Amino acid sequence: KAATILSIEKDEEPAQSVVKALKVRDGSPLDVPLMLFAWDKEAGMHVYKGEKPREEKEKRKERELVNVARDIFGRQTRITYIDLCEQLQQVLDIKERTAKSYIRFMRERDIITKDTANQSCFVIGSYNLRWNTSCP
């Protein structure tokens, strides 16, 4: 049984590949650094080239959470904290603690916001409007 499922993808730099965690037994794949590998002719094998900058990890996390928020709020316009937490756990296969930290992250980035009509609910935030991508 694997502790992590990895994906190797092409990087923006054509000579390099980036390794991403897709599923992690404990924790979240969005918190795992993105590792870079490239072919080394002298060594005759792929070699580790370091990690992508922290900003890249944050951008990936933000993109993933925006997509999840669009999916969740595409089915309903508002959702309670508890229901949002449960849906994040289900969709991303994460623990409650991680889901709560993602909700905090999404609120900080204005991906989601409190509903002005009902403070116990969340709605899609203005982040999605800034990027000219309305909710389905």
Which terms would index this structure?
nucleotide-binding; Arc Repressor Mutant, subunit A; 4-stranded antiparallel beta sheet; alpha+beta; 136 residues; 3-stranded antiparallel beta sheet; Bifunctional DNA primase/helicase; disordered C terminus; helicase
Provide a concise account of the structure shown.
The protein is built from four helices and seven strands, in the order E-E-E-E-H-E-H-H-E-E-H.
Layout of strands and helices, then pairs:
Blueprint: E1 4-10, E2 16-24, E3 35-40, E4 45-51, H1 54-75, E5 79-80, H2 81-92, H3 96-108, E6 112-114, E7 121-124, H4 127-130
Antiparallel strand pairs: 1-2, 2-3, 3-4, 5-7, 6-7
Helix pairs in contact: 2-3
GO molecular function: helicase activity
Protein name: Bifunctional DNA primase/helicase
Organism: Bacteroides ovatus
